[in-house]
């Protein structure tokens, strides 16, 4: 599968040198003549500076590694905030707000209590990041080649949504066991303090169902979240370079490009938090309780109940998403991976629309 995808990806319109040729008017048999010698040299130089070819196995492997770092490190860093948010969702009478939640947690568990669940968080979200970012690149290339160059540009938002949803489906299967363990440690005082204590205890009580009973509501939470995360980010980056950044992306330094990445990531993160919060509340309660179903939890929480902890989640997810995109893009810069610019309208489509002679 990967070898065929890699072969198709080489003709992908997201390929930076190809887009540059389209931009220079050199792609396609009917393109007007230009200064071919100089442009071809520039395109060749762009390819030579990369450490691997776009769509190669090395490219996808390093993208997956970037996902491991971006998700594993950031989610682990916000464990204290995530712990308080989970406790606000499952016991709103005791943990009445973000500041009150921190105060009560510190009083009961001390400073070390704020780090509960860090191990399953790191392992689970590292696995999720590997699948989320790695498979996103795979599915984006695959679906793009199915659509063709012109439809890829016209339907690029749908492409981002489909590719991210497909990637997250598999990412959540990898995440579910550690997410269930993390929530059990964080929301049931005295149940277990470490991953090594919690896993055998959960398996003894409920079997494998303990680790995967929350996968369906996890899909409900994470798939809309990831669709918003990737589609909003991609279109926000495009809009920033078009309307805000005073010079073309090609003229920006790597540091300036990473600043744009961080800003677009934060904007996407705010929308992600809002879209996915109700399902996040259901997942938190479901993994705490034995024998409950997602529909029962949703009915019991009601409309107001599922929005508890939204402010804390916006702060957490906004910062988290911005840092994830920043780390992911930084990994691409460090390993000199191809980083395609925002998509441009193909020359053939411009001619069809009467925008070019």
UniProtKB/TrEMBL annotation:
Family the entry assigns: Belongs to the mitochondrial carrier (TC 2.A.29) family.
Domain of life from the UniProt record: Eukaryota
Membrane-topology annotation of the record: Multi-pass membrane protein
Major localization class: mitochondrion
Subunit structure as annotated in this protein's UniProt entry: Interacts with PPIF; the interaction is impaired by CsA.
Cellular component aspect of the GO annotation: mitochondrial inner membrane
Residues passing through the membrane, by range: 258-279, 310-328
Alphabetized PROSITE patterns for the sequence: SOLCAR
Positions of Solcar repeats: 58-142, 155-239, 256-334
SUPFAM superfamilies recorded: Mitochondrial carrier (SSF103506)
Keywords carried by this UniProt record: Membrane, Mitochondrion, Mitochondrion inner membrane, Repeat, Symport, Transit peptide, Transmembrane, Transmembrane helix, Transport
Subcellular location: Mitochondrion inner membrane
GO MF annotation terms: phosphate transmembrane transporter activity; symporter activity
GO biological process: mitochondrial phosphate ion transmembrane transport
The name this protein goes by in its record: Solute carrier family 25 member 3
Chemical reaction(s) catalysed: phosphate(in) + H(+)(in) = phosphate(out) + H(+)(out)
Function noted in UniProt: Inorganic ion transporter that transports phosphate or copper ions across the mitochondrial inner membrane into the matrix compartment. Mediates proton-coupled symport of phosphate ions necessary for mitochondrial oxidative phosphorylation of ADP to ATP. Transports copper ions probably in the form of anionic copper(I) complexes to maintain mitochondrial matrix copper pool and to supply copper for cytochrome C oxidase complex assembly. May also play a role in regulation of the mitochondrial permeability transition pore (mPTP).
A Pfam match: Mito_carr
């Amino acid at each position: 599968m990967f070898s065929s995808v890699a072969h198709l990806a080489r003709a992908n319109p997201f390929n930076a040198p190809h887009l540059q040729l389209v931009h220079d008017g050199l792609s396609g048999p009917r393109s007007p003549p230009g200064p071919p010698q100089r442009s071809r040299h520039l395109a060749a130089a762009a390819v030579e500076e990369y450490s691997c070819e776009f769509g190669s196995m090395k490219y996808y492997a390093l993208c997956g590694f970037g996902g491991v770092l971006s998700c594993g490190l950031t989610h682990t860093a916000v464990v204290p905030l995530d712990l308080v948010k989970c406790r606000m969702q499952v016991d709103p009478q005791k943990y009445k707000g973000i500041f009150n939640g921190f105060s009560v947690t510190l009083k009961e568990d001390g400073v070390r209590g704020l780090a509960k669940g860090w191990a399953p968080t790191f392992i689970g979200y590292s696995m999720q990041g590997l699948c989320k970012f790695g498979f996103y690149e795979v599915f984006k290339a695959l679906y793009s080649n199915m659509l063709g160059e012109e439809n890829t540009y016209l339907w690029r938002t749908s492409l981002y949504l489909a590719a991210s949803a497909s990637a997250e489906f598999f990412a959540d299967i990898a995440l579910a066991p550690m997410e269930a363990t993390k929530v059990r440690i964080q929301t049931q005082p005295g149940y277990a303090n470490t991953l090594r204590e919690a896993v055998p205890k959960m398996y003894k009580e409920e079997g494998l169902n303990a680790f995967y009973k929350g996968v369906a509501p996890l899909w409900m939470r994470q798939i809309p979240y990831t669709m918003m995360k990737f589609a909003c980010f991609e279109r926000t980056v495009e809009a920033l370079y078009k309307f805000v950044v005073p010079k073309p992306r090609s003229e920006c330094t790597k540091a300036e490009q990473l600043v744009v990445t961080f800003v677009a990531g934060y904007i996407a993160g705010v929308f992600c938090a809002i879209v996915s919060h109700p399902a996040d509340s259901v997942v938190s309660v479901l993994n705490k309780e034995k024998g409950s179903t997602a529909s029962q939890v949703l009915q019991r929480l009601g409309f107001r109940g599922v929005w508890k902890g939204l402010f804390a989640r916006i702060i957490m997810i906004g910062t988290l998403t911005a840092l994830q995109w920043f780390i992911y893009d930084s990994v691409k810069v460090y390993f000199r991976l191809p980083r395609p610019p925002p998509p441009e309208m193909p020359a053939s489509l411009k001619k069809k629309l009467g925008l070019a002679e």
